[in-house]
Amino acid sequence: MAIKRLTAGTDPGEIVTPGRAKENFLQRLDSLIPLVRDTMEKAKARYKRAFDKRVQVRREALQVEYWVFVKSLENQEGKLVFKTLGPYQILKTDGRRLTIESDYGICTVNGNHAAWAPEPPEDDPAWERALAAWQVPSLPSSASKPIETDFEHFVGQGYDDQERLMLKVR
């Protein structure tokens, strides 16, 4: 079988020495190299096209003077709280950390906790109403002053860490 492979492509009457058979074999291998390279390039291009279809575009880096919403770290388990705060303008950045001027003054936040926000338009009443809605007033503590409210019905109840009764109402 090995002799048959080594002598393939030669004349039937030709005597093939082992050295000549080796040369013929290496020439056939050399002729296959461009074909293999071409096939590999086509496969590589096909894999790249398939990969590029699935890859999502990364958001562009946040830069100075961009506006961002910042993830709220307060009371994350509550459903009725805002998940983000802002919009705030970026004052300084190193690519990872953002320095912003928030309601609490100038502070630094992680860039992973910020999302791009549109620039607020000048003197737009709809935007002013939206900003006012973001600023939820804090209620006084029930220990210092009793709170009187009207509500439709109880949604739930529970106790906090200090064993105080907490009511969820509508």
Provide a descriptive summary of the structure in words.
This protein has 3 helices and 7 strands, in the order ααβββββαββ. It has a 5-stranded antiparallel beta sheet, with no helix packed on it. Strands 6-7 form a two-stranded antiparallel sheet. β3 and β4 form a beta hairpin. With about 170 residues, it is of the alpha+beta class. The protein folds into 2 domains: about 1-55; about 65-170, no CATH class. The model has no long low-confidence stretch (mean pLDDT about 75). Helix content is about 30%, strand content about 25%.
Write out key terms for the chains shown:
170 residues, alpha+beta, five-stranded antiparallel sheet
Spans of at least 5 consecutive residues with low confidence:
none
Number of strands: 7
Order of helices and strands: HHEEEEEHEE
- Residues in helix, %: 25-40%
Give the strand content: 15-25%
Order of strands in the sheet with most strands = 4-3-2-1-5
SSE class: alpha+beta
| Total tally of structural domains | 2
> Radius of gyration from the CA trace?
36 Å
The span between the termini is: 88 Å
Shape call: elongated
SS field, number of helical segments: 3
Average pLDDT for all residues = 77
State the major sheet: 5 strands, antiparallel
